[in-house]
Amino acid sequence: MKDFGREELERALTVLGETLRARNLRFELVAVGGSSLLLLGLMHRPTQDLDIVALMRDGHPSTAVPLPDELLTAASDVAAVLGLGPKWLNAESSGLFDLGLPRGFDERLETRIYGGLVLHLAGRFDQIHFKVYAAADGMSPKHIDDLRRLTPSREELLAAGRWAMSHDVSMGFRMLLVRTLADLGVSDADDEL
């Protein structure tokens, strides 16, 4: 899959939104991860995809699995035209929705409109939660790098840690989480979680 920066991502979203509008379709998606951090201007490293955590229905997030066929077809058509990977838009992060989003998530969303596409971006506070969970889960060192770029406060890291613990209560995960938070400067996380 090809990496893209903010300009390429904005172009892909614009083309997708116009494609949806031309087909008389409209979708509201909730995005998390590196691509949404790019769009918010909170990160500048290239990314490979747009992670959809939820669909928005009646003003509230709902499951993104499966993504609607019409949306996937339009995204595939855009990928073919712009030379993007086949999964440039995906719901691989939808498990976060299933486990429960941080309290107040809906109120912190930032919205962008691209024709027939309304994209809601998770706010910085929520992104910190997701990045702490992913970093402790051992998914990739990029999550620690992203967290350092976000410069979370001690309180934000502990809130994220507590939320992460509500998703995985195993002792093994707790140990990884404590180590992750210590790497980020919270040396007494074991006592605070």
Defining traits:
single chain; 193 residues; 2 domains; 9 helices
The percent range for helix content is: 40-55%
Between the first and last Cα atoms, what is the distance in angstroms? Answer: 38 Å
Mass-distribution shape = elongated
- Which residues form runs of ≥5 with pLDDT under 50? none
- Overall average pLDDT: 94
Assembly state (oligomeric)? single chain
Radius of gyration over all CA atoms, rounded:
17 Å
Number of domains: 2
Task: Sum this structure up briefly.
This protein has 193 residues and is α/β, with parallel strands linked by helices. It folds into 2 domains: 6-122, no CATH class; 125-192.
Overview of the molecule:
α5 runs antiparallel to α6 (142-150), α5 (124-136) packs across α7 (154-165) and α5 packs across α8 (171-183). This protein has helices at 6-22, 34-40, 69-82, 95-99, 124-136, 142-150, 154-165, 171-183, 189-192; strands spanning 27-32, 50-57, 60-62, 89-90, 110-114, 117-121. β5 (110-114) and β6 form a beta hairpin. 49% of the residues lie in helices and 15% in strands. It has two domains: 6-122, no CATH class; 125-192. Strands 1, 2, 3, 4, 5 and 6 form a six-stranded mixed sheet that branches. The chain has 193 residues and is α/β, with parallel strands linked by helices. It is elongated, with a radius of gyration of 17 Å. The mean pLDDT is 94.
